[in-house]
């Protein structure tokens, strides 16, 4: 039985608590913690949990309650400090996205996990969705051939008041706009599909609709990989309809989420055959239908995977190593967006952008944040399923 604690009992903690409660034979919630007095207690009552509540993570960790796993659901600026404290107490950690505010903090978290022999899981729950699970499996099969280009549409829409929440819309506390906080899901998927990071990144960014925020609300990046392939990423909170997609153009076929395969075959003059490559399309659709739907999806799917790893002493699918790669690519995108230059990866400890302070020093303040509210409305958040 894995004993889990949740630190930060705001919006996203519901997905963690509900995920944990899906597996009553495998785990139990033994503590909740939130710095806002009364907040963890309200959540405890809402779920009918029988556990103590705390206002400080260090008090929770020092209380003598056996805890195996800490879910870090605080705002991004507090991920590294809470996760490191928990790992120093010998706890495994599942940290929300983005892993931390900068590469240096991610590296410190990985170092702590290694020193204390604990698992550091990183939330990227959209891998546990049928369209992306299927896309990854079909790409891995090799049937579509090598990747030529990937088009990633991280297209979200958020109203003006979204950035009124106290920690959003600031470089210091939110760490960035949609390129970090929304496209983080797509960047994880891009890295998962590509199997590694690009060599070069170029980006343009702007803020066109949210003048109560320092950070960007729209960016467009292009990337070049060692094998010559290109990727393009649009990160936005100004896209009506929120039409998310990842389109992978391979040598033999286009495969994508949402699923809409295309496959051309050449006539003797190089132009595409009018009837396309029906044989390959039939095979692609057959493969897609043969992949069974996931039993658990989203956060619950990732929690199931992490619990299995803890039970069987293996690695979960998504770890801090994935988290740091995602933060590194996003940092490179910001570096290019702020400086107007093409950026070469990797970004090492000597790079000014390696630490959050360096990013903040170079950050373009598109607007100044004029409104700051402790909470927003009563509508609740939608979990970022793509
Ligand atoms: N995976 C997803 O789809 C998804 C969706 C939304 C948010 N998130 C991420 O989850 C995290 C939290 O987002 P949210 O929307 O739940 O925010 P939120 O503001 O609703 O909740 C965060 C909570 O953490 C508490 N907190 C802050 N610092 C703390 C500390 N040091 N110790 C204990 N509690 C602390 C706050 O009081 C608050 O209750 C962010 O990193 C965000 O990017 C992930």
**Ligands bound, unique:** nicotinamide-adenine-dinucleotide
Instruction: Assign a percent range to the helix content.
Output: 25-40%
What is the number of E strands? 13
Lateral arrangement of strands in the main beta sheet: 12-11-7-10-9-8-13
User: What is the CATH C level class of the largest domain, in words?
Assistant: Alpha Beta
Look at the helices and sheets and give the structural class: alpha/beta
Strand-residue fraction?
Answer: 15-25%
Please write the string of helix (H) and strand (E) elements. Answer: EHEHEHEHEHEHEHHEEEEEHHHEH
Low-confidence stretches are: none
Find the CATH topology of the largest domain.
Dihydrodipicolinate Reductase, domain 2
Number of domains: 2
Fourth-tier CATH superfamily name of the largest domain: Dihydrodipicolinate Reductase, domain 2
Structure description:
The structure is a single chain. The chain is built from 12 helices and 13 strands. It is α/β, with parallel strands linked by helices. It has 2 domains: 2-125 and 297-318, Rossmann fold, CATH 3.40.50.720; 127-293 and 325-362, Dihydrodipicolinate Reductase, domain 2, CATH 3.30.360. Helix 1 (13-21) crosses helix 10 (298-312), helix 4 (79-88) runs parallel beside helix 5 (103-115) and helix 5 (103-115) packs antiparallel against helix 11 (320-339). The longest helix has 20 residues, at 320-339. The model has no long low-confidence stretch (mean pLDDT 96). Bound molecules: nicotinamide-adenine-dinucleotide. The site of nicotinamide-adenine-dinucleotide has 26 residues, from loops.
């Amino acid at each position: 039985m894995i004993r889990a604690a949740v630190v930060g009992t705001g919006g996203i903690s519901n997905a963690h608590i509900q995920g944990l409660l899906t597996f009553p034979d495998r785990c139990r919630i033994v503590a909740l913690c939130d710095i806002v007095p009364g907040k963890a207690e309200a959540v405890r009552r809402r779920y009918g949990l029988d556990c103590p509540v705390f206002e400080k993570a260090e008090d929770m960790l020092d209380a003598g309650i056996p805890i195996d796993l800490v879910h870090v659901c605080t705002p991004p600026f507090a991920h590294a400090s809470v996760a490191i404290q928990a790992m120093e107490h010998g706890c495994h950690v599942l940290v929300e996205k983005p892993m931390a505010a900068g590469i240096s903090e991610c590296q410190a978290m990985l170092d702590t996990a290694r020193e204390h022999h604990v698992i550091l899981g990183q939330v990227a729950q959209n891998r546990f969705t049928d369209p992306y699970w299927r896309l990854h499996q079909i790409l891995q099969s090799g049937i579509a051939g090598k990747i030529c280009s990937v088009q990633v549409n991280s297209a979200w829409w958020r109203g003006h008041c979204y950035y009124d929440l106290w920690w959003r819309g600031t470089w210091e506390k939110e760490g960035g706009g949609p390129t970090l906080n929304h496209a983080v899901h797509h960047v994880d998927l891009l890295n998962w599909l590509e199997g590694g990071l690009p060599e070069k990144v170029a980006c343009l960014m702007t803020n066109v609709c949210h003048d109560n925020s320092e950070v960007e609300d729209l960016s467009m990046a292009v990337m070049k990989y060692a094998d010559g392939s290109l990727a393009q990423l649009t990160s936005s909170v100004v896209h009506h309809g929120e039409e998310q997609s990842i389109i992978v153009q391979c040598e033999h076929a286009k495969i994508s989420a949402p699923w809409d395969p295309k496959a051309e075959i050449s006539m003797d003059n190089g132009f595409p055959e009018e009837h396309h490559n029906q044989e390959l399309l039939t095979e692609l659709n057959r493969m897609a239908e043969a992949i069974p739907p996931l039993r658990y999806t989203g956060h619950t799917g990732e929690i199931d995977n992490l619990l299995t790893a803890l039970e069987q002493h293996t690695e979960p699918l998504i770890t801090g190593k994935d988290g740091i790669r995602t933060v590194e690519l996003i940092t490179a995108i910001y570096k290019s967006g702020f400086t107007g230059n093409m950026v070469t990866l990797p970004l090492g400890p000597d790079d000014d952008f390696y630490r959050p302070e360096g990013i903040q020093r170079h950050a373009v303040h598109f607007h100044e944040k004029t409104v700051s509210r402790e909470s927003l409305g009563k509508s609740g958040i939608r979990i970022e399923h793509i």
